[in-house]
Design brief:
Two copies of one chain form a homodimer.
Chain A (H helix, E strand, L loop, with lengths): L7 E7 L11 H13 L7 H4 L2 H7 L3 E9 L2 E9 L7 E7 L3 E8 L5 E8 L9 H8 L4 H23 L7 E8 L1 H8 L35 E4 L9 H10 L8 E5 L3 E7 L4 E7 L19 E7 L6 E5 L7 E2 L1 H13 L18 E4 L2 E7 L10 E4 H24 L9 E5 L8 H6 L11 E3 L3 H11 L3 H11 E5 L4 H7 L14 H8 L1
Parallel strand pairs in A: 4-7, 7-8, 9-18, 11-20, 12-14, 18-19
Antiparallel strand pairs in A: 1-2, 2-3, 4-5, 5-6, 9-10, 10-11, 12-13, 15-16, 16-17
Chain lengths: ~525, ~525
């Protein structure tokens, strides 16, 4: 495995027995042996030293140690008789506002041996993060939010470890990536200034934390690494994404786009990085659309329309009868409708283009994707005129943010060698369709690369590559953050992006050509 | 004050208010400001960060911080509104087997503001350290020993802080010097191999410890520094003594002698250090002599005898009626008796030289220093023939150890510019008298310097001079330890030293001259 140098190592030692000519203390004996292997004498906490007097003589000076890469370098987390030899485990966590994903990593091999995905229990206080921030400000709201996520953490650790016949104490390192607000909830830090001008988090750079300090039950000598934030709207999840993409190490210029309610963008290479985040609205995540649902069984995630006979084709997750449209399905749908002339460049439904599917529901024109007899719940699945307006506003905001960022460094989209698309549903977007609606720039498709769960991948890397924390620190120091909320050019440029694909068709030559076909 | 750079600093900050063009997190704002003052960005523990959201805006961004020199450099231990401003305190501790001395140090000024001396409660399990090691091995003996000293620690901290209207939480750093065994008891480490060949402590180098980990109640972010050991018989108390003497920084060669049941010796300069410890027996401390007592009121600490008329003159501590002889008094007495011809070079009492004072008690010849009618308890204070034999054995061992050490590096006593005399009673010894009995070498008197409570002074320096810990580490790395228990030359040389002052009078020319006068 490339870049494999984990934050926790099991090291077996066959030590020389003590004698009058070598009567070092037990601790010095172990420390010196580890020092010559690690190239640096490790710290040796009292708790770990305490049992050496038993372990060393009884094991005939053959011991297995576990060392961790702590705040000041290596430290001895455990020493035991050689025969006991589980591999050390690490836990990577993608702390999302909707879903929390736990990855159990064998730090001996670097393999992710188990994954557990859980709904974030804080959702009862609001799907929207702002609602939760308001809740945090009431009475002991912050404590409640923290205890909910810590509770989930402990029960999930218990579950994932029990599965493999292990115990929570076998986890020696945790790496956690979440956005700024989620990390503040997690650590019990007041989030109230995150959403108010001038947008001040309590903490941007978290030092290593003892999990026990916040009530997490793993090995008592374990450390928790929480990815830092660059600012209120640029959190550790995105930094983990940068790490996962590797764009900070490459000579070529890349752009990382995290698609969601907030559009988060990073542009740069190994020498420079510019970042920006701005509200794109929840439409892209499907949250507020008439028939928008999460990517769950029965969600339409792929749609196409034959531009000649207007036949609708779709695919649902797990092949279940359709119940709604998830993010990637919605983008597909709008793109297909535009290409098929069912919606005009201003976003208006062309109602007489398909009299069967264009219907009025609640006095609003809609385009029906699936009839009640096809669906799982017996209701039609459709997209409304209002949905389309919302969608265009979101995709327009997204495109404009990308454009402001590239303009800020004086380059064009064609200069970008690679576009990494990340985010809860970003990975499932068909870039071709996103280009058609003018959400992503019109560049060759092979430049797009889905990053999967980039935050999770980055968190895993923080466990398996011990220099990752330093790289993240360097990324933070290198990054220039553009505060989109205060940029005037954003509003000026947004207007042109509120069309399909854009008022300036020279920006989307491939779409122009396709539509004219 | 020379070498004043304390391990804890109070730093007031007047921070720029946040704005859209400077919307760093609270933590980053404080950390950057401290970084530019300290020359290094401090660590910022979660606990300390937590209250920044309250403190910063409410104090208009004027805050007082306390930073500590922790395991990986500076770290923020406290941040508060500017108006709250106690100086940070440190606690230096000389953890002796008999007496534990606490020094409260104002780390703003470096002054020791209060001293508290307490009897070590472990004494109920034996005055002798070996008895306590045996006790530690029985049932939960170690736990008992540890809880006794920790209990004393907490009550003493309470007492010393309450005196000044402060609380234990105002203590931010502890530096503790004790011998290897005392430190093992204190930290709950198994001492059983310290006293058995090949004499293996569990730990020689202690990393910084959280006081709370061993049940000590001070500030939750405080650190405890425990002076390291070089070996079982060469502990942190002596390392603190070296630090206090400054011999490790000088070009000239010095010798540090710690006089006690164990004779501990260090020889060297800034380039090299040789150390040795060996049993001298308890006679020098007065512990086993017929009328030996501790240095307490009523103890005879100074004695002289007119060599012509044999008049005895003595001084007692606090001027109270005599009740016994403490260490310095015993050495004075033997020296005066030898010069006055009351004891011959082989250590035999010359019983017909003073028929009044030479008496038989319990069928043994004794020399009476104070008659029953002069003493506080109505019993005579005397020294017996057996006492003298014991004393000579102890002083002979001491001298031989010094001699073995200087021979090991191929120099003579005359090459040593300075003799530091330390130890519980070492500081009170009159070097002139110690030379007469052949305990200390016959060099010009001005070369001797009492070090006072060297362990305590060294512990204080570890608080007021933050590079001290690094210096101690360097001393440990530089020191060559001679295991006296395995040296054959010791026994060979001891024989000659079992005379007053020595069989070889050319070694003690000033004594030879005086006796011949």
């Amino acid at each position: 495995m490339d870049r494999f140098e984990p934050v926790c190592r099991a090291i077996s030692l066959d030590l020389p027995s003590p004698s009058l000519s070598d009567n070092r203390s037990h601790e010095s004996r172990v420390r010196a042996a580890l020092g010559s292997i690690l190239g640096q004498k490790p710290l040796f906490p009292l708790k770990t030293c305490k049992y050496l007097a038993d372990i060393l003589p009884s094991s005939d000076y053959k011991v297995q140690t576990l060392v961790l890469d702590g705040p000041s370098g290596w430290e001895v987390a455990q020493a035991s008789a050689k025969s006991i030899s589980l591999p050390p485990y690490g836990l990577a966590v993608d702390l999302g506002s909707t879903t929390v994903v736990f990855y159990l990593v064998d730090l001996g091999s670097g393999e992710t041996v188990s994954t557990l995905s859980k709904s974030n229990p804080q959702r009862v206080h609001g799907e929207d993060i702002l609602e939760r921030i308001l809740f945090a400000g009431q009475n002991n709201g912050l404590e409640i939010l923290q205890s909910e996520v810590i509770g989930l953490f402990n029960s999930s650790v218990q579950e994932i470890m029990a599965e493999g016949g292990m115990s929570p104490e076998d986890i020696f390192f945790i790496a956690l990536a979440g956005n700024t607000t989620m990390c503040h909830f997690f650590l019990g830090l007041d989030p109230s200034h995150i959403c108010r001008e001038p947008y001040i988090p309590v903490v941007n750079r978290f030092d290593l934390i003892r999990p026990s300090e916040i009530g997490i039950n793993v090995h008592p000598q374990a450390w928790l690494y929480c990815f830092p934030n660059v600012g209120s709207y640029f959190g550790g999840d995105l930094l983990a994404g940068i790490l996962a993409s590797g764009m900070h190490l490459k000579e070529e210029i890349s752009m990382l786009v995290d698609v969601g309610t907030n559009a988060e963008v990073v542009l740069g290479n190994r020498d420079w990085l510019v970042a920006c985040a701005g509200a794109a609205g929840p439409a892209l995540e499907g949250g507020i659309l008439s028939c928008g649902i999460r990517a769950q069984p029965g969600a339409i995630d792929r749609v196409d329309i034959d531009r000649n006979n207007l036949t609708v084709m779709f695919h649902t997750i797990d092949g279940k009868a359709p119940e709604g449209l998830c993010g990637s399905g919605i983008i597909d749908l709008l793109a297909a409708m535009f290409v098929a002339g069912l919606v005009d460049p201003t976003g208006k439904l062309v109602v007489d283009r398909d009299n069967a599917r264009m219907q009025q529901i609640d006095r609003e024109w809609v385009y029906v994707v699936a009839d009640p007899h096809e669906t799982g719940h017996g209701e039609p699945v459709y997209i409304s005129q209002g949905d389309i307006k919302n969608l265009i506003r979101s995709k327009g905001a997204m495109y404009t943010i990308l454009n402001v960022v590239i303009q800020s460094v004086g380059i064009g989209f064609e200069d970008i060698e690679r576009f990494y698309v990340a985010g809860a549903f970003g990975n499932y977007i068909d870039p071709k369709k996103a280009i058609i609606i003018g959400m992503l720039p019109d560049v060759p498709l092979e430049r797009f690369e889905g990053l999967g769960n980039a935050a999770g991948t980055g968190a895993i890397e923080a466990l398996t590559w011990r220099k990752a924390r330093k790289e993240v620190e360097e990324i933070c120091n290198k990054i220039t953050y553009l505060e989109m909320n205060v940029r005037k050019d954003f509003m000026n440029q947004l207007t042109g992006a509120l069309f399909l694909p854009h008022t300036d068709l020279t920006r989307f030559p491939s779409v122009d050509k396709m539509v004219k076909m």
